[in-house]
Amino acid sequence: MSEKKPTQVVDISQKEKKYSIRDLARIVSKSERTIRFYINEELIDRSTGHGRGAYYVEKHVRQLKDVIAKRNLGMSIEDIKLRKEALDSQDPTKKHILWNIDQRGTVHNVTEVYLAEDIKVVVGEHSQLPQDKVNLLITEIIKVLDELEV
After folding, report:
1. Can you tell me whether residue 52 is helix, strand or coil?
2. If the chain, 150 residues long, is cut into consecutive pieces of 10 residues, what is the mean pLDDT of each piece?
3. Which of 45, 63, 91, 132 is deepest in the core (most CB within 10 A)?
């Protein structure tokens, strides 16, 4: 005789929590005016609904906290916009924007080798290239430059 599995009960009445702009302001300790500014600047998505029926959900809370964190780190509104645009974009050529913005103002240990006027090789600390491979790479590049008579 087969054993009967217990029936799983799913409560579909629980909907995603809705927040007013006043709720958002309280959650993130910012003014409603600041939140409206971020919305107008398209740093966070607009509300669902309009007027008195407008509401926000957890997605908006996460977006708002992310913007605030980036502002606290000193990122400009423009950089946050560019970063959001790059993340939202399906265009892979815009992904380089993320690296440029995220790296601005950081300090890294790098190996820089100047090969000729306006030509240098930069190997970052996270490249995972062992020093002997870096040396080999530089040697090969120098050979090519010599052939090109640079």
Report:
1. helix
2. 57 73 95 96 91 91 92 86 77 59 54 76 73 83 83
3. 63
Sequence-ordered alpha helix ranges (H) in 15-130 = 21-28, 32-40, 58-72, 77-88, 96-103
Distance CA 97, CA 84 (A): 10
**Per-domain boundaries in the chain:** 21-103, 110-148
Residue-level pLDDT at 40: 95
Helix H or strand E encompassing 110:
strand 110-116
Burial of 27 (C-beta count, 10 Å sphere; 0-12/13-18/19+): middle
Q: Which two tokens stand for residue 21?
A: 């702009």
Instruction: Give the pLDDT confidence score for residue 133 in this predicted structure.
Output: 83
Question: Rounded to whole angstroms, what are the CA distances from 15 to 11, 12, 124?
Answer: 9, 7, 47
CA dist 150 and 142 (Å) reads 9
21-103: CATH class:
mainly alpha
